[in-house]
């Protein structure tokens, strides 16, 4: 099992980077296996010997617990976390199970039981909201206590600390069916330094969003430069907007006996200009799938379509941004030369060599599009498999060449949905020489990534 995890990225063929950039050694791989196995059995813990049955909620995972000693059924529902939402939300629904317990010859129901909900260290008191059956609960400073009392079933039988960061929200009461406890906690970006006191590693930091470890899709790059790690993280780490999620596309051709994808394969290198290619159909959850996915960036004055469909993009003027390389774009180098990926900042102000006009496929197929260079009308993105996998800009010399079946086929691409997609928790982080797409480690499959970044140097 450890060897399987060791095959996960970042790149196992680069042992030094594998060690320094936060990847798993065999020891940590074994620990990771054990940790994952505890996700199902370490959500709830019971405390014995107290005045009333006490339950601790340690993990926020949607689940249902039949708590026999507390004589209730507890249903936990966590709302999906998004990088566009500044709060983490969880709801607990309580239902009486007295009849079930009595069938198992348990003692008669006690008058009350205690529910202790963990308040994690990654949140803050400011902006935290707790309610019980819709009634707001005051959030005191750490160390203070508060009491909420009401008639009969709603009575809280003892004072309890409502919110202490790193502690618990504690509620003791006689529960009834359909009682609702809602908790909304602030969630945000933070960094943690690597656990290594050697000076040469003092700048290595991981980026987290609440409890989620974020990693950057990369081939080993880690330099984020002189960024502020104490304040202002939101100035240079930005959530991926909703409209970006609907503009991811892949472009394919049926050529040389198979389906080929327009790809910036291995285009993650720093300071390198990489030629675009037509690559074999990639497996999902791999570098190849990410590098065969592009975001359409519209440069004309029209509003972006809600979804990037073929019909809606015909006639639009666009940039092609690689999925795994935010702020980089595809550009041409002139007639007869290959297409490359270049940093956005290097593009001229008028963007002439990176702007393409989407037109109906020259082959006349209802599912294809062609990309015409905006700077040189009549010149099209072109791939001829006979000449290899390279993708270039071709300007036909005459009408015969322009109207030939071979040219029209080679300049037409099937328009489809992107092979990769943004996780609900997705950010772009600006680095020194490139930007990084940050997503939760748990969302990746076989992509390579960076865990620890050089920040503040």
TrEMBL record:
One Pfam family linked to the record: AbfB
In this chain the Alpha-L-arabinofuranosidase B arabinose-binding domain maps to: 325-433
The biological process GO terms on file are: L-arabinose metabolic process
Q: Which domain of life is it from?
A: Eukaryota
A GO MF label:
alpha-L-arabinofuranosidase activity
Tell me which residues make up the Non-reducing end beta-L-arabinofuranosidase-like GH127 middle domain: 54-139
Q: What is this protein called?
A: Uncharacterized protein
Organism source for this protein? Ensete ventricosum (Abyssinian banana)
